[in-house]
Specification:
Strand 12 and strand 13 form a beta hairpin. It is built from 10 helices and 16 strands. The protein is of the alpha+beta class and 396 residues long.
C-alpha cells in the first residue's frame, strides 16, 4: 500500500514563488511507486488548494486561473486520521479528498518555514518532514541562531539587533552602529531568506538607506561587520540529532558584492528562466584544501545538531580570506531545491535523498509516540463555580 503524502508549498511569504519551484522539482523526483502524492498549494492568504494542475509549474503563470480550476480544502482530524476535505463541504456524498499519512512541507521564509506551519501540523498530530517547531523558529531568526551557536562554540560574526521601536530614532541607531563597528557593514532583516532586504553600507548615507530597506521587510533587523575579502561556501546536512552527515561543498558566484535574490534563483540573467537554487552559478566541489573542506563540513554538522535540526538543511558559511577563518552565516532549514545538487556528487540521488528525509520524519513520529504528553486525571471533578483549589491552593 502506498504512503499517502501531501506536499505543501507556497504560503504567505516573500519566497512564495521559490517554494513553488522547489516543491514541483521535488514532486517530479519522488518515487511514485512508493508514495501517493497530493500537491497542496497554499496561497498568500493561507488558503489550501488541490487539483489536477496544482502540480504543474506552467499553471502558476496565471495563479488566478489556477485557483478557479482547483478545489479549496481544509485539514481535519477524525477517526484517528488526518484528512484533506473539500471546503465548502458537499451537501451530498463524501467531501474527503484524501487521507494524509505524512506531510512534506517545502516552503521558504517567514510565516511558513519559521515553525508556524510546523506547529499547525503538530496540532493535527500528523508526521511531517523536516525540522521541528523550535529548530524551524530558531533557524529563521538570525539573532537567536547566532546566540545558540555562540553557546556551542561555533564561530559567528558579532552583530547588533534593532527593532521597529528603535527605528523611530534612526540617528541614535546609526550612532550606536558607528560606535561599535567600522564600515562597511551588512544590514539584513532578522527573519528573511533568499537575500531579501539585505544591503551593504559603506558610509552613513548608505547605512540609512540600508536600514530603510531592511525595515521594509521586517520589524527587526541585524547589523554585522562585512568581511572585506570574502568567500562564500555552502554545505548541506542530512540527518537528525542522533546522526547527521555533510554533503559536498559548493562555492556560489555572485554578480554583485552580495549574493542576490536574482543570483540565487534566476542565475543572474533575466531571460535564463529559473530552476530554483539549482540555477545558481556555482562551483561543485568548491576549491578547498582537504583540511578546510573537513573543517567546513564539521562546522555544518555541528550547526545542524546544535540547533536540533531534522531532515535536510543547508548551512551557509563565510571564509575571511585575510585570516582564513570560517564563520557560520546562517542556516536554511528548508533550503531552495532542498540542496539536492550538493548530494549528487557524493552518489546520493534526489529520489533517495527524499526517501531518507521521509524516513527520518516517520522515525521522529515513532519516537514521539513513546512519550507521555497527557494522562488521565479527575482534577476537574473538584471544580465548582467560584473556583477550586489547585496544586498550590490557588483559585481559578
Amino acid at each position: 500500500m502506498k504512503i499517502k503524502m501531501a506536499v505543501v508549498f507556497g504560503g504567505k511569504s516573500v519566497e512564495h514563488e521559490i517554494s513553488i519551484i522547489s516543491a514541483i522539482q521535488a514532486i517530479q523526483s519522488m518515487d511514485k511507486e512508493k508514495y501517493e502524492i497530493t500537491p497542496v498549494y497554499m496561497t498568500k492568504s493561507n488558503e489550501f488548494y488541490v487539483g489536477e494542475k496544482v502540480g504543474d509549474i506552467e499553471a502558476y503563470k496565471d495563479i488566478k486561473a489556477l485557483i478557479s480550476e482547483s478545489r479549496q480544502v481544509v485539514w481535519i482530524r477524525e477517526d484517528g486520521k488526518v484528512r484533506l476535505v473539500l471546503y465548502p463541504m458537499k451537501k451530498f456524498g463524501s467531501s474527503i479528498v484524501t487521507d494524509v499519512d505524512i506531510v512534506f512541507p517545502i516552503v521558504h521564509g517567514t510565516n511558513v518555514e519559521d515553525g508556524s506551519l510546523q506547529g499547525f501540523f503538530h496540532t493535527l498530530d500528523v508526521p511531517f518532514v523536516g525540522c521541528e517547531v523550535l529548530a524551524s523558529a530558531v533557524g529563521m531568526d538570525k539573532y537567536v541562531m547566532k546566540t545558540v551557536l555562540k553557546d556551542n562554540d561555533i564561530p559567528v560574526l558579532d552583530c547588533l539587533r534593532f527593532t521597529s521601536a528603535d527605528y523611530s530614532d534612526t540617528d541614535a541607531m546609526i550612532e550606536k552602529i558607528e560606535n561599535k563597528m567600522k564600515y562597511p557593514v551588512i544590514v539584513k532583516p532578522v527573519n528573511l531568506g533568499s537575500s531579501v532586504g539585505i544591503k551593504k553600507a559603506h558610509d552613513t548615507a548608505s547605512l540609512r538607506d540600508a536600514i530603510d530597506l531592511a525595515f521594509t521587510f521586517a520589524s527587526r533587523i541585524l547589523i554585522e561587520p562585512a568581511i572585506m575579502n570574502l568567500r562564500e561556501i555552502n554545505c548541506s546536512v542530512l540527518g537528525d540529532f542522533e546522526k547527521a552527515e555533510a554533503s559536498e561543498c559548493e562555492e556560489p558566484f555572485n554578480t554583485d558584492e552580495i549574493l542576490s535574490y536574482e543570483d540565487k534563483y534566476i542565475g543572474g540573467a533575466k531571460d535564463s528562466g529559473s530552476k530554483g537554487m539549482a540555477s545558481l552559478k556555482r562551483k561543485i566541489p568548491a576549491d578547498l584544501t582537504a583540511e578546510k573542506r573537513a573543517e567546513i563540513r564539521d562546522l555544518a554538522v555541528r550547526t545542524f545538531q546544535s540547533l536540533e535540526c531534522d531532515g535536510v538543511a543547508r548551512i551557509d558559511l563565510m571564509i575571511d580570506k585575510d585570516t582564513d577563518k570560517v564563520y557560520v552565516n546562517e542556516i536554511n532549514t528548508i533550503p531552495g531545491s532542498l540542496s539536492f545538487y550538493l548530494w549528487e556528487p557524493l552518489g546520493l540521488g534526489y529520489k533517495d535523498m527524499l526517501d531518507r528525509c521521509i524516513d527520518l520524519a516517520f522515525k521522529r513520529a515513532r519516537e514521539a509516540a513513546q512519550v507521555t504528553y497527557a494522562f488521565d486525571t479527575n482534577v476537574l471533578a473538584g471544580v465548582k463555580l467560584g473556583g477550586c483549589k489547585g496544586a498550590k491552593g490557588s483559585k481559578l
